[in-house]
Q: What sequence folds into this?
């Protein structure tokens, strides 16, 4: 049995104009087998019926609601939630993703001192199919300097995430990736639970608090922020991934020049996947 059995976990969810998805996300939190949970929803100035429905849900469920009078973005909204969190442990959830019922229980049981946080395998839902993202058992600071091997969420101690400086509000995107780099640098690697405990909406037509137009700018800014910590190999791979994210087609020669040998299989599969989807 975990030594953290009686610990409170604060779950923070930023949202804006995605009421239907938010309700499903909330249900996946309310259905957790770990019962000592507080839910904090930051409504980033939604213009739909989100405020009214949240108030109605809060009448029967323990949910803290923070409402921004004007849109402030995901990073500021998450930091606001962390300021109001009561739990020793915190875990984030995007409002269009879902959790398996045992997610928090498995993660709390897996958390050990010497680690900065815990993540899990994810099911990535695309338009035409779903794939399982299986992650390394232990994801180090050095691993993260290649790319975001953790994903979009972790469970960690509140003091760790605050000690690392929280989410960088100056980045237009990639705030999660940036934070995981700082977390692992300060507090140790991330442990992965080898179970699919989260369903991630990876559809291209999804709307986001972070606008798609700013997505590439955020990843470039994140790269520039941490470039001095990277080896030449890591820098080359980062530039290659930014080119891919920008929609630029890369040649096979570029793959073999820019990608570390241990990641060739991953990038070859990616290139084949992209080609098949373009040809459809």
A:
């Amino acid at each position: 049995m975990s030594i953290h059995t009686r610990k409170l976990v604060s779950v923070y969810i930023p949202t804006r104009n995605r009421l239907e998805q938010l309700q499903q996300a909330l249900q996946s939190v309310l259905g957790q087998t770990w019962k000592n949970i507080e839910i904090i929803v930051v409504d980033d100035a939604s213009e739909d019926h989100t405020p009214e429905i949240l108030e109605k849900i809060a009448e029967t469920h323990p949910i803290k609601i923070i409402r921004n009078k004007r849109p402030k973005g995901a990073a500021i909204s998450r930091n606001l939630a962390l300021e109001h969190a009561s739990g020793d442990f915190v875990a984030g959830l995007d409002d269009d993703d879902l959790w398996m019922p045992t997610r928090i229980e498995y993660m709390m049981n897996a958390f050990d001192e010497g680690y900065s946080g815990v993540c899990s395998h994810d099911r990535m839902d695309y338009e035409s199919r779903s794939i399982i993202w299986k992650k390394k058992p232990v994801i180090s600071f050095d691993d993260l300097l290649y790319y975001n091997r953790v994903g979009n969420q972790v469970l960690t101690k509140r003091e760790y995430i605050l000690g690392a400086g929280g989410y960088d509000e100056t980045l237009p995107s990639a705030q999660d990736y940036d934070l995981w780099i700082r977390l692992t640098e300060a507090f140790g690697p991330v442990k992965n639970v080898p179970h699919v405990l989260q369903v991630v909406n990876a559809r291209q037509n999804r709307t986001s608090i972070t606008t798609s137009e700013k997505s590439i700018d955020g990843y470039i800014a994140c790269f520039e922020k941490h470039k001095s910590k990277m080896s030449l190999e890591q820098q080359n791979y980062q530039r290659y991934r930014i080119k891919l994210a920008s929609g630029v087609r890369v040649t096979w020669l570029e793959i073999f020049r820019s990608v570390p040998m241990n990641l060739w299989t991953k990038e070859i599969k990616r290139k084949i996947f992209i080609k098949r989807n373009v040809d459809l």
In short: The chain has two domains: 9-210, 211-280. The chain has a mean pLDDT of 92.
